[in-house]
Amino acid sequence: MADLITDFDVIIVGGGATGLSAARSISKRDPQQRVLVVERFKLFNEEGSSGEHTRFFRTAYTELELIRLAYDTIPMWKELEDEAGAKLIDWCGLLNFGDKNYTDGPEGNLMAPIANLRLDNHPVEELTLSQVEGALGFRGLARKYPDADQFGAFLAPDNGAVHVPSTLKALHGIAKENGVQFLEDTRCLNIEDTKDGHVVVTVDKPHGDKLQLSAGKVLVTAGAYTNDVIKSLGIQLNLTIWENMTAYYEVDTQLSPIPHLWFQFLKTSDQPEGFDLVYGFPPFDWAVPGHARVAIDHASVQYIDTVPEVRQRKVEADLEAAQKFVRDHVKGASQTPVDVKQCLAVNVADNGYVLDFVPGTDKRVVLYTAGWAFKFVPLFGKFLAELVLDGHVDPKYEEVFATFKIDRTTTPPIVKPSSPPAQLRYESTAKSASATARSLEAGLHGPRRHQMLF
Fold this sequence. Notes:
Helices cover 22% and strands 26% of the residues. The chain has helices at residues 17-29, 64-84, 112-119, 129-135, 164-177, 226-230, 316-329, 377-389, 398-401; strands at 7-13, 35-38, 54-57, 89-90, 94-99, 125-126, 151-156, 160-163, 181-183, 187-193, 199-204, 210-220, 236-237, 240-250, 261-265, 278-281, 291-296, 302-304, 338-347, 354-357, 365-369, 415-416, 423-425. The protein is globular. Mean pLDDT is 88; it is low at 419-454.
């Protein structure tokens, strides 16, 4: 952009959903702020965590504080829809089902959200196996639950599917209208906190020209690429990055209406760890018409700390696990995947979010990464704007915000002194559906926050 200035109030490194939301929130609160968003790829790309058509908006958490956070976000989504003049969430409800004794996994306890939702008088309905198999598009589940008392299910109506492309375009359009500038195809090479009230950001423009930018505050929302961005600040994070595979399957809606988002909580002995955690979306005209999205909540290929220059594409084992569920349990569905995509999911040891000031920068550099948060995009944009403009979040959220701090106790800790080159972490899975299957070796320990990674 020929008229780009080099001195800003705020530079945001990372133009995915959270970075765009922060740009919107900052520019709305103070239109005089000079804000620049630097994006490593093209805007609206599928190289990070903000690609694909759909995401869950869910309220069904094991943790009560996350339920309350989700409900606080609903009016913020409606405000964003009003600003954009577009529908961004299809409120189709969420069906969770499976082994009611399932507790030890990234999604927490199947049944615990029921009591928490009822504690705040939110709607939730428990369902039987026959109800789930009857009118909701599933079949053959009874074979997995010879003891009917083992099966549990509930429907939470205040949940829905987020239209990802429309959300990204809405956030970008509002921010741009408010004067935010954008640099695409531009890699952040270095961030230097000069300690004199300014932060210098060196970027590499598309044709190899380096450019130095200056700002009072820098916000890093680079997702899976966070360690690449912050290494010049002398800090690296213990990150595990999943290559999540997803695909769509044509369905006969007369046989398989699939009216809700859904998630199966289960662990069986005949499947590798994580392959029984299956989730899906109903068919939407704004996604792939006539097709339901189905995927496993697991990644056989995972990167340690950062993303390698050459990513592994199309992980067959993960696709096969989803296909198996479709074949065995979705009525009237094709077994041929279409619109196969992948997306990077960033995790720390407790499956939580990292949203905080970078240590040692005197609140001049703010960081967000880890824990898929598309459902919280408007709220986290508000939080980041508050950190940048006020130096703290709304006191109403101080208690839950403390659980996002970068120095909270996890094993391994979130912050580490240095990071090795990008690598794959493998573990052979003898029972895998494919010889290429690999899964994360047991290594993330400590108390976990439970959140669905989509």
